[in-house]
Specification:
The complex is a heterotrimer of chains A (about 270), B (about 325) and C (about 400). With about 270 residues, chain A is of the alpha/beta class. In chain A, the strands form two sheets. Chain A has a six-stranded mixed sheet, sandwiched between helices. In chain A, strand 8, helix 7 and strand 9 form a beta-alpha-beta unit. Chain B is an all-alpha fold and about 325 residues long. Chain B is built from 15 helices and two strands. Chain B starts with a helix and ends with a helix. Chains in contact: A-B, A-C, B-C.
């Protein structure tokens, strides 16, 4: 259960910084990839992708398994280096930039596999990203806010490994959000969660997006979840963008249904 | 058959090239050729047992040198005390080491015996297996090697009598050492056949690729690991047996082999046959040439520095390099 | 709130003791309670008194104290940062040799002080170079360990063949396996004003009730330095930087994704470890007034791994106490069986108690050690906060 006061005050901090960083109207392009390619040996995971995200946009990335969604996210964060092409963020070319430098610039990510620091307590987990830019009383406050926003008030000294899956996801989102990013990448945030937990996370994401202006790219398979949160949807197939549009447009497109059933066509409907 | 041959075309080509080089060298500069070939054989024979265990089980056995010691001592004692003819004694040496390896695997590496005891006494496993625990296996097997070296020293003293070198010499170079080159090729061929043409080999490669799937297909992966370790140990023992006539029998001979083996495996990468042989072909000449020019120490250092450079610039070793080259050539389609 | 501060909440400024304890205590070290520090003080007092009260002069024991610094260096690098280094003895040996070379060439007290600094710096610089080569070259996990192992072998092979007379730096002959002769005795201070010789300078002291006792100043120097290093490292690992190191140990990639420059952090930790190991080597050479390449031997390279594995690598206290205990045992057993014992100890500790003895005893709730200090052995608490962690 999210503590709404905690969540609000966390998001006030984030919102203020995001507002300071915004340079104009909300339709500025935040992220742009240019002919981005990634191959592993003979296999092409990312095939000349031009992917863009606007400031404050809530984008969902969907597609059949093996489409290259996680790969694209890892290219954006810098965990993987592209074979070819470039990535622009906030007007700067970040293609050669180290992951931690990209985080400093405002990109933040939550991995597919929940990876809180299991042997550390909830408080120590929450403290780790925050200790870089806050000291003393402010640090304590922000750590507590992050914990509260994740709905873990009262469990501060518990080992993170004993948290439920859903609680770990919430903690991770808190930790990623506490970096005050402009772009937050979430790889399958609700996989394996109950309906209630999914609703909570959907709520969290939309609040962070609306009130703090954080742009999101969310990989998810649950179409209902996607429908709840997305501004726009990008469909990835065999490493390239197959369709892009609103959730209604994409859902009603028969070609999209076909690729999920295993058809080999490319975005023009021709067989590859 | 034809398909297998065409897939192996690079390998066959490489073997032909090496064979031709050796023949040409033997006729033109025999002494240098034999010295380099001996160095290559030394590295390959030292490494092959370790490579099998590392490549397949993800265990780094720092007691590998001492396994070679077991083979060498067993062979020597079989000749001097039991009076077996040398070839039989060598086989005996290899077998003794294989059995010893089996025991080590059951007790330490997989923890099967302690866990069996644990289940029957306190109701739980006592030990986690060492598979894919590279750093832990290094540390634990180093402990084992200390025990083995000192054990050998305590039981057998500081040295035991050496057995004589068989055969004569050609062009001033001992025939036995030349024969080793052929034996090395034979061992590599044997290992290759074992892992590609037998059912056991297929099981091993399946387990190596994906243990869960292999288990689901009914492969007893524990058993596979056990036999693999025994085979790796047996090969180490065979190496010890082969070199028994050439070295003075002291408990410290393991060290000589360990460094070369270790470096060769690390540079070679995960592929047992290809990685080890190419690694041997690279490191043998480097060792021989530096040793000749600058002395034994220089040869050692050259090897070690090659290893460090390979670790830094060739992740995955030579095997990784070949994989990348092959992928680039095929990916271009 | 145990991890945040031991100061009283709400307004009153903490006492100096509380402030000091704040720095020294935290989730990354064992012993965050008053009973611990009382125990610590008692043990320290015993160590101070033992050479005077006991039969020995503390002469032999000072070796263990010096090696304790080496053990601490590996605990920092392996236990806290997750880098298993078989190369600490390289920095140890280089520090020792550098001290030898500089002090032989400049045998005055000032020169000797410079030699100490040079030796420590040599260890740090070499670690920085090797660390840069590895971490900034993208070498990871076990391959880092292998490279450190290989570098130990390189040093051994190289130093073993420096016996010839051409291997001389200034007045100092490296000496190969014969070792480096002619080191000056460790004398510190200011020339002409006050100097004090620490080595081979036993004082006879008339102790009330016990008669004449011999007291070895080097022992007290080593003890003071070891305690300083231990406390210093306690502060470091409980600082923000220490928490980053622990995070790197737990999950390097994740930590990078929080914006931390992981390569740099590892390099800093590795360099500090190298400097500490080098400093240990300096004291080793100063104590023995001699150094030879046996410090580069593979056996010696694994000893720190043994100490730290047995004692608990993630615990500074474990590392130090195990170093002293294992070395004491090793030298007591002596001879051939010592190696067997060490090998067996190493094997057993990895098999049975991979976490080490000291953390294991702490987790068993030994009353003087509060368990809520160490994350990885903290008693598992269920998801609700109502079950309190037991107070000691």
């Amino acid at each position: 259960m999210s503590d709404s006061t905690g969540q609000e005050s966390l998001d006030v901090n984030v919102r203020q910084t995001a507002a300071e960083m915004a340079t104009g109207d909300r339709t500025d392009t935040l992220l742009q990839t240019d002919d981005l390619v990634k191959t592993f040996g003979g296999f092409t995971a990312t095939d000349e992708v031009d992917f863009s995200v606007e400031e404050g946009e809530l984008r969902c990335l969907i597609g059949p398994n093996g489409a290259g969604k996680s790969t694209l996210l890892k290219l954006i964060t810098g965990t993987l280096s592209p074979t070819d092409g470039s990535i622009f963020y906030d007007g700067h070319d970040i293609t050669e930039m180290e992951p931690n430098a990209r985080v400093d610039r405002g990109i933040s990510m939550k991995f597919q596999v929940p990876s809180v620091y299991g042997d550390l307590s909830v408080r120590e987990n929450a403290r780790l990203p925050i200790q870089q830019f806050a000291d003393g009383e402010e640090r304590r406050r922000r750590v507590q806010e992050a914990i509260d926003a994740a709905g873990l008030t009262g469990s501060e000294d518990v080992d993170a490994s004993t948290l439920s899956h859903g609680q770990q996801q919430q903690l991770e989102i808190s930790m990623a959000a506490s970096l005050e990013p402009d772009l937050l990448l979430l790889d399958e945030p609700v996989a394996g969660l109950s309906v209630d937990e999914r609703a909570e996370i959907a709520d969290r994401i939309t609040t962070l997006n609306e009130e703090a202006g954080i742009a999101f790219v969310v990989i998810e398979h649950d179409t209902e979840f996607v429908g709840e949160i997305a501004d726009r949807v990008t469909v990835l197939h065999k490493g390239d963008i197959f369709r892009e549009g609103s959730i209604e447009e994409v859902e009603s497109d028969p070609a999209v249904k076909r690729i999920y059933l295993g058809s080999d066509e490319d975005s023009d409907g021709d067989s590859r | 058959m034809m398909q297998a041959l065409s897939q192996a075309r690079y390998g066959i080509g490489a073997v032909v090239v090496v064979g031709v080089l050796f023949a040409v060298g033997a006729l033109t500069t025999p002494n240098l050729t034999f010295r380099i070939s001996y160095a290559v054989s030394f590295v390959v024979l030292a490494a092959i047992g370790l490579a099998i265990i590392f490549g397949i089980m993800g265990v780094i056995n720092l007691a590998h040198g001492e396994f070679i010691l077991v083979g060498a001592y067993a062979t020597t004692l079989a000749v001097t005390k039991v009076g077996l003819p040398l070839p039989v004694a060598m086989v005996a040496g290899a077998l003794v080491t294989a059995v010893f390896g089996l025991v080590v695997e059951r007790v330490i590496i997989s923890g099967y015996v302690p866990n069996w005891i644990g289940q029957r006494t306190v109701g739980r496993d006592l030990i986690t297996p060492f598979y894919d625990r590279l750093a832990d296996s290094m540390v634990a097997t180093f402990g084992l090697s200390l025990i083995m070296v000192q054990g050998a020293r305590i039981v057998f003293g500081n040295s035991i009598d050496q057995i004589g070198v068989p055969f004569g010499s050609t062009a001033g170079y001992p025939d036995y050492r030349i024969a080793l080159v052929g034996i090395t090729a034979g061992v590599l061929a044997l290992v290759y056949v074992l892992f590609t043409q037998t059912l056991f080999g297929t099981r091993v490669r399946a387990t190596m690729q994906d243990e869960q799937t292999a288990k689901a297909l009914g492969i007893d992966t524990e058993r596979t690991y056990m036999y693999t370790f025994a085979i790796g140990s047996g090969l180490a023992g065979f190496t010890g047996a082969l070199f028994a006539p050439l070295l003075s029998m002291q408990p410290s001979i393991g060290d000589q082999f360990l460094v070369e083996a270790f470096v060769a495996v690390v540079v070679g990468g995960a592929s047992v046959v290809v990685g080890t042989s190419l690694s041997g072909l690279l490191l043998g000449p480097i060792d021989a040439l530096f040793s000749d020019e600058f002395g034994e120490f220089a040869g050692r250092i050259a090897l070690l520095i090659t290893a460090m450079l390979a670790l830094r610039f060739l992740p995955g070793g030579i095997t990784g390099l070949i994989d990348r080259v092959r992928a680039m050539r095929e990916g271009g389609s | 709130m145990a991890t945040e501060s031991s100061a009283p909440a709400g307004g009153t400024s903490p006492t100096p003791i509380a402030r000091l304890r704040n720095r020294l205590e935290g989730p990354n070290t064992i012993g965050n309670s008053r009973p611990f520090w009382i125990g610590f003080a008692l043990v320290l007092a015993a160590l101070v008194a033992f050479p005077i009260l006991g039969a020995g002069t503390g002469n032999q024991f000072s070796l263990f104290l010096v090696l304790g610094l080496l053990g601490l260096s590996l605990s920092l690098v392996w236990g806290y940062t997750g880098i298993l280094s078989f190369g600490q003895t390289v920095f140890f040996g280089v520090g020792a040799y550098t001290f030898g070379v500089v002090s032989i060439n400049f045998p005055s007290p000032g020169g000797i002080t410079g030699a100490i600094a040079a030796g420590t710096l040599a260890g740090a610089v070499l670690a920085a170079l090797l660390g840069y080569f590895m971490f900034y070259g993208g070498v990871r996990d076990v391959y880092v360990t292998i490279i450190t192992l290989v570098s130990t072998l390189v040093m051994l092979t190289f130093m073993a063949q420096t016996a010839g007379s051409e291997w001389t730096i200034g007045e100092a002959a490296l000496g190969g396996f014969n070792g480096m002769p002619g080191m000056p005795l460790l004398t510190l201070g200011a020339e002409g004003v006050f100097t004090f010789q620490f080595v081979f300078n036993e004082y006879e002291v008339l102790v009330p009730f016990l008669g004449t006792r011999v007291f070895d100043p080097f022992y007290y120097l080593a003890l003071a330095l070891l305690v300083a290093a231990y406390l210093g490292l306690r502060v470091l690992v409980n600082m923000d930087f220490g928490r980053v190191l622990v995070a790197i140990r737990e999950d390097e990639d994740r930590t990078m994704m929080f914006g931390y420059d992981v390569k740099r952090a590892k390099l800093v930790s590795f360099t500090l470890g190298g400097g500490l190991a080098g400093f240990s080597g300096v004291l080793y050479a100063a104590r023995n007034v001699y150094i030879d390449p046996s410090v580069f031997e593979l056996y010696f390279a694994t000893l720190p791994v043994v100490w730290v594995s047995v004692g608990g690598r993630k615990s500074l206290l474990g590392a130090v106490s195990a170093t002293i205990a294992v070395e004491y045992l090793r030298l007591s057993i002596g001879g051939e069986f010592a190696l067997v014992a060490v090998g067996a100890l190493l094997l057993l500790s990895i098999l049975v108690l991979p976490g080490g003895v000291v953390p294991w005893t702490a987790s068993r709730g030994i009353p003087w050690v509060r368990t809520d200090g160490i994350p990885w052995i903290r008693k598992r608490v269920r998801g609700d906060a109502s079950s309190e962690v037991t107070e000691s």
